[in-house]
Amino acid sequence: MGATAGHFPEAATATTAQAVVDLGAIAHNARVLAQAAGTPWMAVVKADAYGHGILPVATTCLRAGATWLGVAQLAEALHLRALLDADGVARPAGDVPTPLTPRTLTWITPVLTAAEAAAPGSPLRQALDAELDLSVSTLSQLEAIAAAAQAQGQAARIHLKVDTGMSRAGAVAQDLAPLAVAARQAQDAGLVQVVGLWSHLSRADELTSGSTEEHLRRFQDGERVLAEAGLRPQFRHLAATGGLLWHPAARLDLVRLGIGLYGLSPNPATATSAELGLRPAMRLESRLLQVKQIPAGQAVSYGGTWTASTDRWVGLVPVGYADGIPRAAASLGPVWVAGQRTQVIGKVCMDQFVIDLGPVDANTEPPVPPVPPAQAGDRVILWGDPNALPGVPTADDWATACGTINYEIVTRLGVRVPRSYAPGATKEEQV
Fold it and tell me: What is the pTM of this model?
């Protein structure tokens, strides 16, 4: 087991839970998805690598063949670059990234005026100094980046984003032409290099909606707009995990591996992780803090929303919504303990929740003290990989119970839960 990571390393032995991340599973998932895509790929490690730990995941993916890293927010991208520098991962060299010299794209930057962007130490000048690629959706973003580039004396590498139907970031059709013209002018002035054109798919997890085909048509229209302005970006990317799996035409020059890297399906109703050959990488575990009997009719937790139907054994698990356990898991969230699967009973509290351990067997002859089915200190697994330990719940099970998606279950895990790491890619899995 690798070293524990988290915000409380000095108190590692006092923590009440841990998330064990199998880096070998991440390398396996990367290999499966990259083989399906048949193109260069970006490891999307935003949001602390979907809660799995940004540096261990990023370096595992680079060893597995990633040539790009993707981070949404600029602050996190700067943090990642500093971690990579400290870890000895080389800065990018030349136009073609490699696993040894990866490129990093970030796509949410602060709103700055040109003057603010040009100021010493501005976030955009820091981005240029870190050699990050930047996404551009609007003229004002382009103007700020160009001002930072002029002040820095360094051309910015940019990816123009076209809105192909998500109605989120990206230039809509009527705005793309003036943006492309301005980008060409900035490129001619030596302030930017337009290296990418990209977008997001809104319904790639659906097989037959027709939405992805419409996104692709709009993307191709965007390519023509850029060509009319004299721009032919080297990297066109549209597909994330769902797109690369289920819409081959959207793979283009580069694919972005997100949720699939972590062993989770973009849409379990279309295909489960197991059906896709993916291995869930995170196991969230805790220990029973207390086991006790409660009588029939006894309510559990705040509000008394769950009442024991018989005399019951119950266990106390010392994690709660402050750790990222959804309150929506009240009387629903599945757990594994002492070789059996059970569930949360009553409401999830800030720092703990209660689980059902079964009825008290008091009908023995001659009468003997009932024996609890579990003991304080027994391991409790909230979610993990059932292939590694049969019967354990998955992040998908928690998502179903809570009426959400597996993305939210793993990414919301709080900073009080340290991450520890199983070994990474084997030599056969490395590039």
Answer: 0.93
